[in-house]
Design a protein that fits this description.
This protein is of the alpha+beta class. Helix 19 packs antiparallel against helix 20 (about 525-535) and helix 31 (about 715-730) runs antiparallel to helix 32 (about 735-745). The chain starts with about 40 loop residues before the first helix and ends in a 13-residue tail after the last helix.
Length: about 850
Amino acid sequence: MRKNRGRTPSPRHNRPPAAPADRTDTPGASGGSDTPTVGRDGRRWLAFGLAIVATVSLAGWWLSRQTTPTTAGADPSPRAASYVGGTACAACHSEQHAALRGSHHDRAMAVADESSVLGDFANARLTHAGVTTTFFRRDGKYFVTTDGPDGKLAEFEIPYTFGFTPLQQYLVRFPDGRLQALGVAWDARPPKDGGGRWFHLYPQRPLKAGDPLHWTGIEQVWNYQCADCHSTNLRKNYDPKTNTYATTWTDLNVSCEACHGPGSNHLAWAKKEGDWRRFAGPGKGLTVALDERRDASWTIDGQSGNAARSSPRQSAREIEVCARCHARRGQFSDQWLAGDAFADGFRASLLEPGLYEDDGQMRDEVYNYASFLSSRMHAAGVTCSDCHDPHSLKLRAPGSAVCAPCHAPARFAVPAHHHHAAGSPGADCMACHLPVTTYMVVDPRHDHSFRIPRPDRSVRLGVPNACNACHRDQTAEWAAAAVRKWYPHPNPGFQTFAEAFANARRQGPGAAQELAAIVDDRAQSAIARASAVHRLAPYLGPQVLPALRTALADDDPLLRAAAANVLSAADVDTRLRLLPARLGDPRREVRMAAAQALAGDAETRLSASDRRRFEQALGEYVAAEKFDADRPEGRTNLGNLAAVRGRYDEAIAAYKDALALDPSFVPAAVNLADVYRRLGQETHAEGTLRAAIERDARAASAHFALGLSLTRQQRRPEALDALTQAATLAPENPHYAYVLAVALADAGEPQRALATLVTALRRHPNDRDLLLTQAQTLSGVGQPERALPALHHLARLEPDDRRIADLLAEVERAARASGRRLPERPRSGRD
């Protein structure tokens, strides 16, 4: 039920919060060339002694909140309209009002009373992780006894319900204006389906008070996490000075104006009141006309059995109105109105690792928007209300019947197509083409990427498939064999980027070229192309700049914003050459990304006109972060901006504010320590990091930063312990193992360094830094012949890198001179 936007730092903003003069400490700065000097290519050629110090810059993290298409309103000056409340619409729109009643939107949030509460409040109890929670009623009100913010049992009144099926949550009000969502929810499913019970939303986690995910923690704050999508005309009204909320709304639930925009002008037109003639145009005073389906029809082609739209969809207004709440996204302000461009108010998550599988199937709680944008249905012109009634939210027809208007049942609803018995679960279109993933323990949600089942990709790439979602007792190989038997020449499907994305995740050979090809391929969906741009970040260099230029000039803001974010790690000349034009972009998200990327060293070299646009766009960025100042991410981002501009006192204050909000937010501590380092206050840096580790002993990034701090202080044994801890806690991060190996080799422990590298390479066999360090270390201990396999592999991964070819030739000469037998060169090809 929550937006669940996440709190993970984004890897794409990897410029350190540095003074401008420190940004050129990577070898290879090249003035006006196209060669970015920040990033992997420059870093890996540092000498052992320098590498450990240079990696300090990686402590600077730019954090994420997360893009998308078009706009158009119905009448001019929509800002003049005000909200009138959904009940004002019912008199004229009784049919729509009746359909809305009882829907998920209608029951998104309600005052807790007899009509809204579904849970058992007759002294019902649930014990989880040693805490017994009791639900009861008194004097007509609803209460819960559970562990409070101090960890002690206390009694709390429940003023509101949240949702209604398949689960219902309950909210508790605190004196500072927060509403907190209880971690225990009511399973509203029928008892025969396992419902009619209380359950914990985190059944495997013994959450204690102080944990951000505890029901009293910062991750369960309704005002930020949930409110904007469960009420109408929500104004968060957070006061950063007092850390309090005065949140307001027009309708407590999701009512008419949440989708149609403020209705006062339309109401004036309907009642012929005031200056109503001003609204006599086609929009009748509404701020947006959701008319994508007007005069459009779908005609089934007799040969293919699939339908085509009678005319192309001309706008994405309806889709973007829905996306406001059915997307994994970040929010810039609460002033966005229905009809505004999505990218003027929100940043949508891309098909990013961790959120989505390599083939674009949903993995984390990502809702529907990005999945739908990646689908053939979206490309064909389908809009949300083609399948869903926009008021009742029900499907326009039950089950597979909703597909029949566009996909001929005689062609597809037959065993010859689906190869299952008629009427069985496998004969249902959605079982194969919209498989479900269950979130919040009991809430199954359909993947709206509308894909063809590909168990062969499960075999090769490890992604899920619809076949094994039902046939859990069988293997992916079994499913792939069945599909091959049914379809010897199968349709590969609309989403064809999986292999490239998987290869990029593995850092395989040719990954950058494959990603660039997707960026250039307009047959791909915009979100797939933007996601390819996002994945180009580790390969930032001359070879990918053409693709980034293409993305910056694309019609879709998804690509423009993604390219600006990737280019934030480029050298100053590249940023100055490519990004100023985007300071005047039509979409706020893109303007902000460009300004953020130019802040610091580049801003001082902007022309006068570009500087004015920069200040305006940067102001928009700052306003967006201040809007989220109730989160540590927002305050940390403001600290990062201040630090990159050399305003260290301001940065320190922002980081401390972030830690005051959430002491467990490690990125703020790491970045604060890095600012102390830049000021020469290494003792403060160490103390900050040790405090972070004391709060969370498993914070690998804090251990890593501490290891770097201790290295700078010449306390090598302690530094090695800290770096070892980081690499052990986060084996998924090859950089930690790389730095540890460099430190061990530099400390005269090459065998430990080699053991570290061997372990890390089992998990990350294509990591360039690990391979190069292994080769250099083996050569350094007089075993050049053992270094050759790593160098051969590097040469396959980077066939155009002259430096690797030269190093390989040098090591081969040394190996021949040693008289030892050289291993054979491996054949070329993808791993």
